[in-house]
Amino acid sequence: MQTPESSTPPSPATPSASPPDSLSQRLKRLAVYFGGQRLAWTLAMVGTLVGALTEPLLAALLKPLLDQGFTQGTLALWTVPVAIMGLFLVRGLALFAAQYALARIANEGMLALRRTLFERLLAAEMGLFARQSASSLANTIVYEVQTGSTLLVQAALGISRDGFTLLALLGYLLYLNWQLTLIVAVVAPGVAWVMKTLSRRLYRLTKSSQQATDALAYVVEENVLAHRMVRLHGAQASQAQRFAALGRELRQLAIKSTISSSAMTPLTQMMAAAALSTVICTALWQSRTLGAAQNDLTVGGFISFITAMLMLITPLRRLADVSSPITRGLAALERGMMLLGEAPAESGGSYAPARAQGRLELRDVSVRFGNETAAPALDHMNLLIQPGEVVALVGPSGAGKTTLVHLLPRFLEPSSGQILLDGQPLPAWQLPALRAQFALVSQDVVMLNDSIAVNVALGATLDEARVQTCLEAANLWAHVAALPQGIHTVVGHNATQLSGGQRQRLAIARALYKDAPILILDEATSALDTESERLVQEALQRLMQGRTTLVIAHRLSTIEHADRVVVMERGRMVEQGTHTQLLANGGLYARLQSRAVGEGAAP
């Protein structure tokens, strides 16, 4: 997907219109990241199974305790603490092992999924960054993955523990009295229907909550990036209202989600209570009608049966509650899976020379954003640039200059036409090899929150001596040497602690360190004072030596020494020549320079 030369920030991603995958399909996709640790899963299953088997034993202990201990008086006293303490020891160790194993599974799976998502982000086609905001992508990779992984693993622990417990208790109840146990089976379809109905609603609410959270985070992101402009125009009140409106929407969705998830517990408990009442009434009826001779249940057996049945309520309730974290967890992780599915990696060819000569050619290149009726950003552009030539691109805003230079490293793809580097079409180049041929210095300097040395050697092996040489050539070494930690000083968020001229020179040092054969200068001296511009211009002259250079600029001092000036208007090349020739022609270039001198923009 292509983005316009002056694009607005992307809005939060919208949900896919296609129907969601089934539960089994979504779990199968996640199994790649969470299902590979066989030893941990085995330990978790064995631990939960052993822990579940101890549940009916608690109820089973009541039968000998009441029948042999209280009624007959034949139970040895030392067996009571041994049985109870031993049972709880086994149960505690088993559940500890299960929780530890599932924690390992969750964290290893989360690490693998995060790494995969971030690697995809680094290699994704450029259209992704137009479709999704930075806050949405960060939220997906950092927070959604963690939330989803934690919820799903907790749900897995609950399902295995309570599922095995439920089966063990039902087995014990069947052993005691299969007729009474059949009554319990009536509850199962009702619980399943409640869970299915409320889970569907909870899934829809969770997806809506994700979109509302993205919108809220995007407002924060916008106001952080534009904090000066917001305060300059006194827009704090309107932005606060905007934030509050989205916050209220998110609150309403959260309340609805809570209602849906909380309704499961009382509904399932009511069903369990109805079954329990029926069982007790039936057992009492059997005792009165059949009499002691025909009734196999002793007092201890009946108390043991009722206790085991009461113990069914807790795992049944937790199994009803587990649909909420499963739904929320899957909805959270689905964002990451959608990112993997909807953000294919960039593609390239196999041509990969060590260093290009720097010959660039555009053949009938057009770029359109949006539908076919929209005006093209570039309209059948033809241009040949020889190795080592310095070409300045000049024209009014919207002429297509930035679009043109973004085509060269394939940040954009042409709608039609062909671009060649050293006679090879750009798609034939390996992408890393292609982008290794370009260095960029723009007015919007981007720096990482790392040391000066790391920012200069960005992506390459760090050589401190070479970093110093590049900083000297960029007229920045005197300032860096005076810093307490020198080249190891951390520059902070986007190097905002440096002045505009210092940041531009740091970008020039980075371009010198890369030593690419083709250089792109995009308004590299705009908005600088006279002294800063002089230092930057000196550094640029060193940088441009022996390189094919494309310069986008309005200042006369940046343009007049170019080998050729290409004047663009509405995506077309309207004239070209040297600075002197174009001024003599009296065309668009001459008018632009006359206007710049009149406004004081050119020295």
Number of strands: 10
Structural class: alpha/beta
Shape: elongated
End-to-end Cα distance, whole Å, is 40 Å
Mean pLDDT: 78
Major β-sheet profile: 6 strands, mixed
In CATH terms, what is the architecture of the domain at 27-342? Up-down Bundle
Give the fraction of residues assigned to helices.
55-70%
- Within the CATH hierarchy, at the fold level, what is the topology of the domain at 27-342? ABC transporter transmembrane region fold
Number of helices: 23
Strand order, main sheet: write it out.
Answer: 6-7-8-3-9-10
Summarize the structure.
With 603 residues, the chain is α/β, with parallel strands linked by helices.
Keyword list:
10 strands, single chain, 4-stranded antiparallel β-sheet, 6-stranded mixed β-sheet, 603 residues, ABC transporter transmembrane region fold, alpha/beta, 23 helices, disordered N terminus
Structure write-up:
The protein is 62% helix and 9% strand. The protein has helices spanning 23-34, 38-60, 62-71, 79-123, 128-131, 134-176, 178-185, 187-225, 227-232, 236-262, 264-294, 299-321, 323-342, 401-407, 431-435, 452-456, 464-473, 477-481, 500-514, 530-544, 556-559, 579-585, 588-599, and strands at residues 360-367, 378-385, 390-394, 416-421, 424-425, 438-442, 518-522, 548-552, 564-569, 572-577. The chain has a six-stranded mixed β-sheet with strand order 6-7-8-3-9-10, sandwiched between helices. A four-stranded antiparallel β-sheet has the order 2-1-4-5, covered by helices on one side. Strand 4 and strand 5 form a beta hairpin. The model is unreliable at 1-19 (pLDDT under 50).
